[in-house]
Predict the 3D structure of the following.
Amino acid sequence: MPERDFSDKSKPTLREQAEAHFGKQIDDTQQVEEKKPEYKPTRAPVDTNQDFLFQTPTKEVILPSGGAGLYPQIPEGKVTIKPIEQREIDILNTDHLVQKNLAFDKAIDSCIMSPKISTNMLISGDKVFLLFKIFELSKGTSKYEFTQICPSCRNKNMSEVDFDNIETTRIELEKNEFVIEELPICKRSITYHLLTGNERSEIDQKIRVIMNSTTASKLIDSTSTEVMNASIDEVSGVPAEYKKEFVKKLIYGDAVYIKEHMNKNTPGMNPVYMFDCVHCEYSGEILIPITSEFFSMKI
């Protein structure tokens, strides 16, 4: 007796359902793979505030001269500075700028955030003030260590200056013009101005070249005479073409009187320190060397 088939012939088999779903016949040896959802990696959300970036510290300082009477660009005398960063280090290490004696001023100018000015337009006292403040902001210290060559024996000395110990003189100037009505000895009157950073840099560079020559030990440091020549504009009774001769013959008492008058009317920080040579008996005030080595950024 034949076996009876109790299956429901009208109901499609699982094979037929799969073929209908995938639109093709399936080989008996082929397995139907379950379709998995496609994996799409997601990125972490971007911090649009960029709080993770380092913010360059800045500092607002007020020029010792007040600014209003000397610089139209700085009516309130306020200047915002930042520290030396990698960009300025690159400037200090650029050979062609160093050779032209431009690297230092360009690096310092780059540290002035506002207003955008050149330090060479400032009178020397204001420029030195900014240099020292940028130094402190860049190195986190007010102490400056450097090598000083003795002007007497020409030997090298290690020196240190603390800028916090240099007094800042604040005088609000209306204009850069001063008159001495009568000198104590020659009885002449003179008109002078305070040197700008550019004028002072030119003098320092001229003296540096001379003093670093092979015959420097036989030369006399004429910085004082050069500063006097550049500062004095008029002398009563002396034609302009003879002004240098007048300065050359200036008697000690008159020269000291002019220097004291200038110091009394000069705002800023005076970049000098007391130097005592360890190799000889020389002792006296010397200018703090402000060159491209001032920041010692060579790496």
Q: What stands out?
A: Residues 59-295 form one domain. The chain has one domain: 59-295. The mean pLDDT is 82.
